[in-house]
UniProtKB/TrEMBL annotation:
The lineage of its organism: Archaea, Methanobacteriati, Methanobacteriota, Stenosarchaea group, Halobacteria. This is Small CPxCG-related zinc finger protein. It comes from the Archaea.
Length: 72
């Protein structure tokens, strides 16, 4: 695939170039369960959902100032 080609985002189905796409992979015990190729907007939405769903409901979250999410 060349840089000119684009495949659709797995969420919104809009075309997205490889340079802009982000891949989210879910692995359990080193086995990939799911993988999604997302455009920047859908990836940002995925991050927001992840942070919301993973935040504990009963305990307050202590902000340590280190809220970077590393994506490779």
């Amino acid at each position: 695939m060349t840089d000119d080609e684009s495949d659709p985002c797995d969420d919104c189905r809009d075309p997205v170039s490889d340079a802009l796409a982000r891949t989210v992979r879910l692995t359990v015990d080193r086995s990939q369960i799911d993988g999604q190729r997302l455009c920047p907007e859908c990836f940002a939405d995925w991050i927001d959902r992840y942070e919301t769903e993973m935040q504990p409901e009963e305990r307050p979250v202590i902000d340590d100032g280190d809220t970077d999410i590393i994506v490779d």
